[in-house]
Amino acid sequence: MKTLKITLAVTVFFLVSGLANQMTAQQLTGREIIDKVYNLPTGEDQTSDLTMTLINKSGSKRVRKIKQFTKDMGDVEKSIMFFTAPADVKNTSFMSWTYDSDKSDDQWIYLPALKKVKRISSDSKSDYFMGSDFTYDDLGDRKLDDDTHKLLREETIDGVDYYVVESIPKDEDYMYSKTTTWIRKDNFIGLKKEFYDEDGELLKILKIKKFEEISGFIVITSSEMENVQKNHRTTMILNNVEINTGIPASKFSERMMMRGI
Amino acid sequence: MEKLLYKLLNYSWVSMIVILVITALFFLQMKENTRMETNLDKYMPHDHPAFIYSDQAEEWFNIKDGIIIALENQKGVFNSETLDTLKQLTKRFQKFDEIDKADVTSLYTADNIIGTVDGMDVKRFYKRVPKSPEKLQQLKENVENNEMIFGRLVSTDETVTVIIAEIGDDVFTQEFYNEILEVAKASETDDIKIHVAGRPIVEGTMALLGPEDMKRMVPIVLLVIFLVLFLTLRSFKGTLITLGVVFFSTIWAFGLMAVVNIPIYAVSTMIPVMLIAIGVADGIHLYSHLHTFIDHNPTAGKKEAIKDMIKHMWKPVVMTSITTAVGFISLLTSQVYPVKYFGIFTAFGVMMAMVFSLIFLPAGIMIFGLPKARKINKDEDKGGHSHSKLANNFASIVVKNKYVSLVGTAVIIVLSVIGMQKIWINSSFLDKFEEDSDIVQTDKFINEHFGGTSTLNLILDADGKKDVFKEPEVLKLVDKMQKDVNNQLQVVGNTFSLADYVNRMNKVMNADDEAYNTIPDSKDMIAQYLLLYEMSGDPENLNKVVDYDYEKLNVMFQLKSDNSKAINSALDVIHTYEDDFNQLGITLNYAGSGYKGLVFTDLILEGQIMSLILSLIIIVVLLSVMFRSIGIGLIGSVPIIVTALISFGIMGYLGIPLNTTTALLSSIAIGIGIDYAVHFLEQYRHNASQTDDKLVAAQKTMAHSGKAIIYNAIVVIAGFLVLLFSVFPPNRELGALVSLNMFTSFVGTLTIMLVLLYMSNIYFKKKKQTNKS
Fold first, then answer.
1. Which residue, B382, B383, B468, B430, is CA-closest to B199?
2. ipTM of the predicted structure?
């Protein structure tokens, strides 16, 4: 179980660089491009409604609705999420504190039926997020120098220019053998990403379906991850996104987890 | 008919060449287009309701059969060497093209979810192989404390750990198996032994071994039959021609199969078996008549001799062939396609054997000449009306001591019926292998250390009602049933379902307190635990036990045996819960290869019994029509009925279970029994028309038909006894039972049928009436 930072995912990994030096003529390296994608300014905090739909190979769906709050507090990033649907898990909540240092994340879970907050520890960043096809890493937990990045080529698709960057993990035991990302030259959004498994076979494809400008930040509001080997898909749609509303630091506490939204 | 056959004698070269050319064409077709069907799934009637449901459930829950790779280390498995081997082998198996990576499970891939004082902890058991004694000790403790792993992936004595690689129905090949064995062997060390087992291995090996063994044995069977046939016919030419009839009819049958593009199934290997047993009969009877004729008319020319043979014998040959073919055609009532095909093509082969016997055999004699007349006959005392003292005496003894036959038959029937009660049906594949074979031994080894190598899947279906399997009372009932089955039955080593996950999560979230290893009382609690598991464990695991909407549940029972008794015992206990589940709106269904095997065997038997009864009725009718007497129809069916009864009775006493092969054997009882009866009856009718003395008629028939029947029985029995030396137990059973059926058919025909014939006075009633008047 890893920190639940869907917000971070949206803002850090895919986000646009408003002030990126995309006008510079000088050729960027793969690492520089990914650095721009990873390290983009985000708001201080964010609130949103997440609808996550899991679709299995026979077309059955599991729909989960989550209200989430995130706040960047300097060296720690805190987030809290409350399930609003389905009814039997309503008010189940998760909180995670992610540190910039090497310190591992702190995580808590609150099950209303149990009426207790429990700490959770996990040793794997390859865990899938809430049973979806996204891992925590896919959602933005990946650090720039965990991989070696290489600019493969530049491509123009439907009139849009992309950098195509290949990233190969330095840890040989990592769940992916490589990823390939198509990054828009104009705004540094990673619009499409392919994930290859340990055997070098295509495992998953991420597609960004929609991004919007909200309070001066560009936020990806609709994305889909498809596991082509399992024929399983997850869509994530963000609604009611609010940025920099000034969420108090006290929001991220065990007491608030128990109180619900 | 006779005229046509006579005419053909003038063109013997033409008939010979036409037959040879067609045979060659069929042979080419056979060589080019024949394919073996080793995928047992292809045998199943997929439109049967049980199969439709099972196939669907297999899709829903990704139910597949698993290959089990067991690593054994007598010094214990918790050391770096064994754990490293386990890791490397797991990764190697994930790389096989035939295996989906996600379908490989071992301690290396498993997650350990444990409760801590203030929460829960999710970790892989190990990723880098632990080296220090402390880390190894920690791993050992983690395994011992996780009952979803301990006893499932690591044996409780800690000397064995397994990798389970699930594969699809259609990927097993000999090459794949060899590659697995090679990979396994390469990882063995002084301390680590590796065993490979599991249903795909058993099924695959069986599908390959049976026909392969047949391929090896059939030439030997043919050789023995050739030798014995030569001894009885005392003619090299005659032997060759008779075997040619068998050989050609087999090629035509298989050639036709190739032409219409039907693959060879395991049961198809029975086709040559049937054709050998039946085809030889026509030849022997024809030659027997020919010999008799030549003996009596040493000066006759070959055309004259052949014409006499055709004149007297074409009718019984046609009659026996038609009745036999009809017996096989009745297999069309079976729901199992391979059995249907078996019926059709055997019937075709039988009819072709008839054509060859009436055209090819005479043509052969025309071309290669008559067999020599026997010198001994000249010195033999012909005893007045017949030329065999032995036959005369035997016939007299049988007729005089008719009550011995009657009482004996009655006793045998009673004993057989008693024995039949003990017959049991077995769909097991493993039971078809030698007790001391590698495959059985490995299976035994794994069953000793783990829950079991066979799986029964119970599918609980709430019929579209969502979230039923989050209800506490439902899961509690499931949990109770699992424990009940597990406790009541030795053969059930393990059970597994969603209830186990819920139990485990409840325990984990309550600081690993064993008192909480139960299903909680609140539905929301269950839902929240499951959500938590989905987020922390591998969600794929849940997909194997419950569907997306929580309206279908897959409960797995691990059995230490794949035989039908084991599966049925589990089904019996499960059925005691049916009412409780029904009241909750839940129906019970089953899935998986073990269950399908059980249903499949039942279907075969059901079809077999149906066709047995049907063919008996048809045969009685046919005989009655042919001989224009219902009495004859009934008498003629007696040897068949006795043969079938004895066959089943002995199987009951010896504990030979009914399975796909042994069940089909009742067809041979009919096929052969009817041949003997028809030849004997036809001869008796002929002889009765020439004499007023019943005994003389009986003696003449015995000397002529009786002798041919004995020869026929000896030839085929000798041939099939060879199968007793087969390495594949089902083929041994086949050999023994075919021999037994031949024996009882011939004894039955020559004793009880003769007695009944004699007592019935058929063919003599009219004469008596005319004498009186």
1. B430
2. 0.84
